[in-house]
Amino acid sequence: MSVIHIRGRHGLNGEIRIQGSKNGVLPIMAGALLHRGTTVITNVPIIQDVLCMMGILEYLGCHCTLEDHTAVIDATYAEVAPVPCAMSGQMRSSVMLLGPMLGRFRLAVSRHPGGCCLGNRPVNLHLDAFRALGAQIRTEGEQICVFANRLHPATIRFPYPSVGATENAILAAAAVSGATRILGAAREPEIEMLCAFLGSMGAKITGGGTSCILIEGGVSLHDSTFEVNGDRIVAGTYLGALLRSGGRLLLRGAAASQMEESLRLLSSMGMEIAVRPEGILAKMSGRPCACDFSTGPYPEFPTDLQPVMMAGCASADGESRIRENVFEKRFSCAEELRKLGASIIIEDRFARVKGRHPLHGARVQAKDLRGGAALVAAGLAAEGETFVEGYEHISRGYEDISRDLAQAGAEIALE
Ligand code: EPZ
Description:
Blueprint: E1 4-7, E2 12-17, H1 22-31, E3 38-42, H2 48-59, E4 63-67, E5 70-74, H3 85-88, H4 98-105, E6 107-111, H5 124-132, E7 136-140, E8 143-147, E9 155-157, H6 163-173, E10 178-183, H7 189-200, E11 204-206, E12 212-217, E13 224-227, H8 232-245, E14 247-252, H9 260-268, E15 272-276, E16 279-284, E17 292-294, H10 306-314, E18 319-323, H11 333-339, E19 343-347, E20 350-354, E21 363-365, H12 369-381, E22 385-389, H13 391-394, H14 401-407, E23 411-414
The structure holds ligand EPZ.
């Protein structure tokens, strides 16, 4: 198993090109299934979750290629088939295939999706949306079967703005003739991206990125080419790394307009940030100030950046407080950060982090994707050598975190 080996306490200086968005591209790839033809997606990150999604699409009869960050998905001959457990269990986004399969075939079968262990991750809101459109649901153990003789447009009201459920509702409704309204929709930029992608295929959708989305479904779709935006979470991860390492980074392709709350928090901790046409330019010197923040649905601070900010707080000047509002169990990297010398007390959904300087190197274990990236960020700021195990979690979402950071002057390698 690969291990990331870091010799800490080198500043970050240089430029990193931000990869395409993981959480943007996965529902888009699922959406390609709606069209009996060819979809070209550019700026696709080469990460495990994308490869897994391609594997599932091929299993369903699509013809897929991925070259130079461009995916070509021909879904002409796709067929309905139960997504095997070994595939759906690998990532949460396999659940995103239920919506387009239901829309296209009126039948979708999958296992309860896998993904990072962040606590209980039910799919009740996804299933409620399908029911509202006229589908029936049968669950047997881990198997979910969604089917309908006839689907009809509906008003879908979400009591919580779930990202995945909003995406699934859009994907299913795009194939249902008539006007469907989604109220209480999630407003994440990845949803706006999905709506823009479906629009590029001919779908008629308005309101993506707001809490009320209108889908005029059932229109015929055509071949299209769509470019995925830069990954705001990867950009935030590298800013989180800079927070403690210090230095000057240009993040090429980072979309500052999607990161307002994150940039505000980083500035409050002492980072100088300038938004440039080509991306984000950030400078950091000295120890970060402690901070107080909580996570929430967009436009609030993203839960996906909470672990890397926790790593920043671990060596900040003073005591920081974090409240995790989105997932039940998203403090799993705290235990590993303690091995690097961090002082973190967890009480339910709260974390109290007393900044210590410097942290020291150790052998640590990534237990989930963003927690793993946070350990890498912490290792960069620690005295001595850090070994981060569990690379299989990190490679689900980061194309090559060691390459990117080494390019900016870090002493880091994948071994
Ligand atoms: C998406 O997950 C992202 N994944 C996550 O990114 C991200 O952390 C999350 O949104 C929140 O921003 C992808 O886009 C592939 P949710 P998703 O449905 O769709 C509860 C990463 O690190 N809920 O908005 O699963 C749920 O339990 C990943 O890149 C229900 O109760 O998130 C959670 O507490 C991890 N019932 C909250 O809502 C449901 O049916 C938010 O989940 C669905 C969700």
